[in-house]
Amino acid sequence: MERTYLKDLPNLVGSTVKIVGFAENQREQSAKLTFVDLRDITGKVQCVAYNLEGSENMRDVTLESVIEIVGLVKARPEKAVKADQQLGAFEIEVKEYKILSKSEGLPLQINAKAQNESEADTRMDYRWLDLRKPEKLLTFKVWTELERAMIEYWTTNNYMEIHTPKILGAPSETGAEVFEVKYFDRTAYLAQSPQFYKQMAMAAGFERVFEIGSVFRAENSNTIRHTTEFTGYDAELSYIDSHFDVMAEEEKLIAFAIQKVVEKYGEEIKKTMGVELKVPTIPFPKMTMVEAKTILAKIGIKSEKEGDLSSEEEKALGNYVETELHHDFVFVTDYPIEVRPFYHMRHEDNQKLTKSFDLMYKGIEITTGAQREHRYEKLVEQAKEKGMNIELIQFYLDFFRYGMPPHGGLGMGPSRLLMKMLGLESIRESMFIFRNPRRLNP
RNA sequence: GGGGUGGUAGCUCAACUGGUUAGAGCAUUCGCCUGUCACGCGAAAGGUUGAGGGUUCGAGUCCCUUCCAUCCCGCCA
């Protein structure tokens, strides 16, 4: 007998079906009558076992056990439906059931009986149980659609997908700290970014590339928006005139992807998470760092350091953009060279400023991008000025010696984007499995 | 890495100024109950109060050390 998804039950009243899932709740009404609420990936249904012969009448079903039920789909008695808020107008009259895998006493409470959600640390220890909650599952349905839409955007706009090595002979120089790994008798590094290789793709004539891959940051950061290993979305494109071309691509990409998410899950997100997800308008607001600082000064946020935004400033700017410009996103451009890596291109008329940008979303940074310096001599000069070990990065500099198109690109953190899209309280909630400086399991 | 807050049963929490045997709900096990839906009723089991040291007649409670968690800052996406 074929398994039936719970969402399809309303069309199957009167027929006998086989359903499978987790036992979310169990109510022993008597020795002869037991209710079990079954949950699968599409929904929930109440299953009624009355006086079953040759079994324990579902009294042996512990919470979260995996069970298989064969039963009759019935409209629920009218009285029962009125009283019920949680479960639908249909139920299953159990004919037979099988416990496929019995659950022990749970280490955290995951059904409606839980008065408080378990602490984050406990939930992360038992992430697979935490994720059984339908609202947590939704995060990853949304992630899937977001990523699918971005791939659709990229592939229909002539980007090629690449996969670059994560074990590197030299750090990828994003400015972030790097993990060392033993590589036979040498030291290798985990990629902080596919930066060098997506630029190599430009040298290879790919013109436009994107990559979805893991990035590693050896930073002892303990905040709700940091993690030591996360998925990065990277894009790089050739023959641009400036960083504005990169920003134009990114805003189209994000608006397209969010639109797809809203179309598919907007209602469900509103219902389960209480968040009204808006499709952002194009173009996104843009301002230079100097302009951002001026605005912040005007609204009374003191600047802690020149040429960069503190997290307080990022939040304040996010609020300002939301209330004054009615937008969730804002590009901040023209960062000074001190806070940017050597490969960012500088303005022709101001060698102190880079043709770079960060994209802020609801007060946090989700992207860094720039036009890259593609002229070999200039690049070497900037690397030296930054005190780079030229020998160590010569393999990268060589990409620029035999003709390199002008290009630029960006790196985005989807887990941060998701966190803000869905109003999650921490980045660990938007990741399948979370890593921080201390957590290596599960 | 710096700072704040916290750590009590499997989970979520309680325990007044230090005071007898550290409690409750849920979960688990057992008993009762034909319509519950956070079902209800009864019972059992469950604890080195994160760890180590100290003060005291007496420490979950006060002090020191240490570990862990969490939030904020820094770093960054």
Numbering strands along the chain, what is their spatial order in the largest sheet? 6-10-11-18-17-16-13-12
Structural class: alpha+beta
Net shape: elongated
Beta fraction: 25-35%
- Helical segment count: 11
Summarize this structure as a short list of keywords or feature phrases:
RNA-binding, 18 strands, alpha+beta, about 450 residues, 5-stranded mixed barrel, about 30% helix, 8-stranded mixed β-sheet
Description of the molecule:
29% of the residues lie in helices and 27% in strands. With 442 residues, it is an alpha+beta fold. It has an eight-stranded mixed sheet, with helices on both faces. The radius of gyration is 27 Å and the shape is elongated. The mean pLDDT is 93. It binds one RNA strand of 77 nucleotides through strand 1, strand 2, strand 3, helix 1 and helix 2.
Produce a short descriptive summary.
By secondary structure, the chain is α+β, with helices and mostly antiparallel strands. Helices cover 29% and strands 27% of the residues. The protein contains eleven helices and 18 strands.
